[in-house]
Design goal:
heterodimer, A: MetI-like fold, 74% helix, B: alpha+beta, Rossmann fold, OB fold (Dihydrolipoamide Acetyltransferase, E2P), 8 helices, 23% helix, globular
């Protein structure tokens, strides 16, 4: 992929052949940094990257806020109910990913009950109706929906291991309910949050199916860009360049994550 | 002055009565131990004092005020748990400073007090370590420091030395006595180890099946157990079936099958024909070679049936004329001898009248 990113696109897509004849090799190696210049020459590509990051960050944060109470509830439930609840969390995996995305098309569609309820409420306050489908909102909803279990599971695994005697000890030493959460449960759950975030953030960043199906024309993410370069425009070198940039971004993010998770991991 | 009064407290778990109508008064500054076999309800009692469980009936009073409705975090009591319950994600210093932080003390004040507490438990260099980097004894000291730093009215200790090995436990017992004396805090100590209770406490409450059997000073508990359970639970004791045949102001005359009539000191509430046991501690029994001079009425011929050498003392099993076996404990003050008698030797067994007692069934 690295090599591909430094080559030229072929006349009919794919890759231009490398000059392998020795007499021409000294004048032109067939390698170029053209694609990288192209990437940075137009702000639109950087913008798509930034937007994808924004979606990934939002999705991760919302997943944490939704998953945390649920994971805590499951972890504190009597043991016999826990497996049932975990099964319910994983149940959506039983049906195909694309089918679940198409289901959201129906739920968010202009004729759906949800759209009617929202728009009639908005009309009551004299606000113009909104379209739910083909919007950044639809993309975000589906992203959260698909990735929520990936946040719940590592969080639950972490929370379930906490020693309940520590909460008793904290209470005994004068901590109220909020202090017990903030000083005892939360810091101990950070490793779970970090691994859950990695499991949500990285796939969301590279996701192309959800923006393709539920997003509008403007809601394109890096994943769509890369897919188009390979399957649409057939500009393989540029597609490879985009992939390299995405890989670098993901690596630096996961590097940061593990660096943050490091002090917390000391006692794990 | 009475600090804590437990008044007619009962706690049930379903059909099981964990704590059965218990009443105790604990004085301020006292080292009070609740001693009992596992499952006797002592931990449930402790959890009710700490506030984690509410009694089904009865009252718990702090200086005369009922505190049943006060949640644990509002009670001026701290607990040292058996597993220490140190926060694994906090340094030793943060662990010790936790109660101060919860009480809303200023950062510099917390630092000063924590530094002082670390010095007291000789852990000054360990402030920045995490609990998992400490040994068992060090963790224990951190738990004590954390429990005492906020000067609670009462420190509850739930078998805190249970997880330590024998040698370390003895050192920690000494430290605990000093710690309590220095801090002047009232301790309620829960344990099933009778030697620990005897060594540490000002007073001991013996608990069995949810009931308090006896509350008294260690020496009185040991020497004057109220009933067979207490006598048997604390230390070793020889028991010979006996019935009362004569009651006077200072004496009871007992009949022991095969041994005849034996006089023991008088005891309250004992009537003629009461059935029970004659109880004598092994170390109160004297044995002498059969050739030695007879100088007491209260003596029997016995036969050495076995012995148990544990270094400082040797326990002898002796068969009495009525075919019951008793144990006698002799200190090994003469070096180089594991025993003074051999199996099969006939010996003279005796004890002083006031060292024996009658325990009713």
């Amino acid at each position: 992929m690295i090599l591909t990113s430094f080559r030229l696109p072929g006349e009919f897509g794919g890759l231009a052949p490398l000059y392998i004849l020795p007499d021409k090799a000294n004048t032109d190696s067939g390698l170029t940094i053209e694609t990288y210049q192209f990437f940075f020459s137009d702000f639109i590509y950087v913008e798509v990257f930034l937007k994808s990051f924004a979606v990934a960050i939002f999705t991760t944060i919302i997943c944490i806020t939704l998953a945390y109470p649920l994971a805590l509830l499951i972890a504190r439930s009597p043991r016999k109910f826990r497996n049932l609840m975990i099964m319910l969390v994983v149940l959506p995996f039983a049906s195909n990913f694309l089918i679940r995305i198409y289901a959201w098309m129906i739920i968010l569609g202009p004729e759906s009950a949800l759209s009617h309820i929202i728009n009639s409420t908005l009309a009551f306050f004299d606000i113009a109706p909104v379209t739910l489908l083909f919007s950044p909102f639809a993309v975000l909803i589906a992203m959260i929906y698909v990735h929520l279990p990936f946040m719940i599971l590592p969080l639950y695994t972490n929370l379930e291991k906490h020693d309940p005697i520590l909460l008793d000890a904290a209470q005994d030493l004068g901590a109220n309910a909020w202090q017990r959460f903030w000083y005892v449960t939360w810091p101990q759950s950070l490793p779970g949050i970090f691994s859950g975030s990695a499991l949500v953030f990285v796939p969301v960043l590279g996701m192309f199916a959800i923006p393709d199906i539920l997003g509008g024309t403007g809601d394109i993410m890096i994943g769509n860009l890369i897919k188009d370069q390979f399957l649409g425009t057939r500009d393989w070198p540029f597609g490879a360049t985009l992939s390299i940039m995405l890989t670098l971004a993901v690596l630096s993010i996961t590097g940061l994550f593990s660096w943050f998770a490091r002090p917390a991991g000391k006692f794990a | 002055m009475v600090l804590i009064e437990i008044r007619n407290v009962t706690k049930r778990f379903g059909d099981f009565i964990a704590v059965d109508n218990v009443s105790i008064e604990i004085k301020a500054g006292e080292f009070f131990t609740i001693l009992g076999p596992s499952g006797c309800g002592k931990t449930t009692l402790l959890r009710m004092i700490a506030g984690f469980d509410a009694p089904d009936s009865g009252q718990i009073l702090l200086e005369g005020k009922d505190i049943i409705d006060v949640p644990p975090e509002k009670r001026p009591f701290h607990t040292v748990f058996q597993s220490y319950a140190l926060f694994p994600h906090m340094t030793v210093a943060d662990n010790i400073g936790f109660p101060l932080k919860m009480a809303g003390k200023a950062r510099h004040e917390i630092m000063t007090l924590v530094t002082k507490a670390l010095e007291e438990v000789e852990l000054s260099q360990f402030g920045n370590r995490y609990p998992h980097e400490l040994s068992g004894g060090q963790k224990q000291r951190v738990a004590f420091a954390r429990g005492l730093i906020n000067q609670p009215r009462l420190l509850l200790l739930d078998e805190p030395l249970g997880a330590l090995d024998e040698k370390l436990r003895e050192n920690m017992q000494r430290e605990l006595i000093n710690l309590q004396a220095e801090a002047g805090v009232t301790f309620i100590y829960i344990t099933h180890a009778q030697n620990e209770a005897l060594a540490l406490s000002h007073r001991i409450a013996i608990m069995n099946r949810g009931k308090i059997e006896q509350v008294d000073e260690p020496a009185r508990i040991y020497n004057f157990p109220m009933n067979r359970f207490v006598a048997d639970f604390i230390g070793k004791i020889n028991m010979l079936d006996a019935s009362v045949i004569e009651v006077s102001t200072f004496h009871l005359k007992l009949r022991v099958a095969g041994l005849g009539e034996i006089t023991v000191p008088a005891k309250a509430c004992i009537k003629i024909n009461d059935q029970g046991v004659l109880a004598v501690r092994p170390e109160q029994i004297r044995i002498a070679p059969e050739t030695s001079e007879i100088h007491s009425e209260l003596q029997f011929m016995g036969k050495i049936k076995g012995f148990f050498y544990i270094g400082d003392v040797t326990t002898y099993n002796i068969e009495l004329p009525n075919n019951t076996w008793i144990e006698a404990l002799l200190p090994n003050s003469e070096p180089g001898h594991a025993k003074l008698f051999d199996i099969g030797d006939t010996v003279v067994v005796s004890w002083q009248e006031q060292s024996a007692q009658f325990l009713p069934n």
